[in-house]
């Protein structure tokens, strides 16, 4: 798939944490009100990410009517959010909390409402606090991708990063 995302030189391989989610198991939620994965979010993608071997994962998302952009197809921003969620979850296999620094999406085919989108994702490697990932999406045939993505995630200190915003957090009612 065509992309203009350029990986830097010097990326080093990373190692799965010994206590990471086992292959075939669902990777823990960010939190239950997360737009990407939370079961309690008022509006959300409700994506479940399953750990694969090594630093890989898979996920699925149902394309619901509220996700419409062009007539009959998913909005590009929704798909972008889905890639962000999938790729942002995989670093949990390293047991390192991250936020997105840079996200790049390649849209190859329109995705119809009512589809099930299947995602594959892997961590490419890292440089210091920078973790590089790639992902692709298909509608049932992995040899026919409909979109792809790359992202740079930055490892954060979880408490410090959100310290100024926690009083705004919403909780399940
Ligand atoms: C785990 C908890 C639950 C999280 C839910 C995850 C949901 C899915 C993921 C998301 O959607 S997260 C939400 C969207 N992202 C953000 O809100 C992040 C907002 N940005 C920031 O908070 C800061 O810019 C950031 C923490 C990413 C970086 O700030 P820092 O001050 O910690 O680090 P710095 O700016 O020094 O950058 C660290 C390295 O990354 C590089 N970098 C940062 N942003 C970059 C960028 N956009 N492109 C390329 N490189 C970038 C930067 O050049 C530097 O490289 P070097 O180490 O080589 O000097």
UniProtKB/TrEMBL annotation:
Enzyme Commission number, as recorded: 3.1.2.2
Origin superkingdom: Bacteria
InterPro entries reported in the protein's UniProt record: HotDog_dom_sf, THEM4/THEM5_acyl-CoA_thioest, Thioestr_dom
Enzyme class: hydrolase
Keyword Lipid metabolism: yes
Signal peptide feature range: none
Thioesterase domain span: 72-123
Reactions mediated catalytically: (5Z,8Z,11Z,14Z)-eicosatetraenoyl-CoA + H2O = (5Z,8Z,11Z,14Z)-eicosatetraenoate + CoA + H(+); (9Z)-octadecenoyl-CoA + H2O = (9Z)-octadecenoate + CoA + H(+); tetradecanoyl-CoA + H2O = tetradecanoate + CoA + H(+); octanoyl-CoA + H2O = octanoate + CoA + H(+)
Keyword Phosphoprotein: no
Keywords of the record: Apoptosis, Cell membrane, Cell projection, Cytoplasm, Fatty acid metabolism, Hydrolase, Lipid metabolism, Membrane, Transit peptide
Pfam families, sorted: 4HBT (PF03061)
GO molecular function, one term: hydrolase activity
Its membrane topology: Peripheral membrane protein
Main location: membrane
Subcellular location: Cell projection, Ruffle membrane; Cytoplasm; Membrane
Stated family: Belongs to the THEM4/THEM5 thioesterase family.
The protein's name in its UniProt record: Acyl-coenzyme A thioesterase THEM4
Protein species of origin: Gordonia hydrophobica
Lineage per the UniProt record: Bacteria, Bacillati, Actinomycetota, Actinomycetes, Mycobacteriales
